[in-house]
Amino acid sequence: MALRAVRSLAILSNPLRTYSTSGPLVNVSINEKTGIATATLQRPPVNSLNLELLTELCTTLEQLEKNKSRGLILTSSSNTVFSAGLDIYEMYKPNMDRYKQFWTTLQQTWINLYGSSYPTVAVVNGHAPAGGCLLALSCEYRIMLNNFTIGLNETKLGMIAPTWFAASMRNAIGTRQTELALITGNLFTTDEALKIGLVDEVVQSKNEALEKAGKFFDKFKRIPPHARTMTKTSLRGADIQALVKSRNEEMNKLTAFINDPKLQEAIGMYLESLKQKQNK
Ligand SMILES: CCCCC/C=C\C/C=C\C/C=C/C(=O)SCCNC(=O)CCNC(=O)[C@H](O)C(C)(C)COP(=O)(O)OP(=O)(O)OC[C@H]1O[C@@H](n2cnc3c(N)ncnc32)[C@H](O)[C@@H]1OP(=O)(O)O
Q: Which residue ranges run through the membrane (predicted)?
């Protein structure tokens, strides 16, 4: 808390610096006038989150923090998919060293995004199942385009959404709705998501979403950044601390879980069903 306070106080005195962290999987551009960064996920066809994409995103978030970013818009280069969630191939017959690196990077990406000192908006311009929904939930505000689906559907895949996935959803829609959403593994339509507060606004186009995102950032023009950041930390800090404390324990449990032959069989069948879908 104290460190964050010092960091946010520094925002008041330091001028904004420009920098570039664009990589092949995450394009980063900075609006010179507003200082707002846009990170666009660009791993076709569905922005599934593999180790390389997560590493780029994690580094981008670290750089934005270091450079006292004014804000971040997280979006997708696809017109139909925000992110298909974790890359299932990272969990199918995994090389355990890579798997551990993958999961550690996912944890760190969440810590950086959920706990960022700068304001964050997800422009959800396509489907956002599971890990895709987690990325959106980790932002402070979600603007979604119509006719897509979003949710933590892990139970439908025979998996359990980790506690910090659940905490991110609880932070947005409360305990009751989170329990219902998680046990059913529901994927919500955009309108259903709006109704329960899983997204904050529904729009018809990406341009409209970007305009609304600008309005969200404008709200902070007259709010001292340190007050904003400390308030966010007071609300989200406990969730982050809970993961920080249990990171290793979670890794041990996941290692055992992922090596279960029944789970591997289920993942294999799920991958097959996704492929079959394409052949129809
Ligand atoms: C302490 C104990 C804790 C226990 C915790 C245990 C485990 C960890 C827990 C879980 C966390 C898991 C989180 C996840 O994110 S799992 C991933 C879940 N994601 C999904 O279920 C989405 C699957 N995809 C879709 O539904 C669709 O693809 C889409 C996103 C709606 C897009 O549809 P569209 O029609 O546009 O595309 P296609 O379906 O034709 O797909 C194109 C192409 O992409 C491949 N693909 C899709 N999704 C993924 C993915 N997530 N990973 C890898 N690959 C994916 C698909 O197979 C097609 O490939 P092809 O080779 O056929 O072109």
A: none
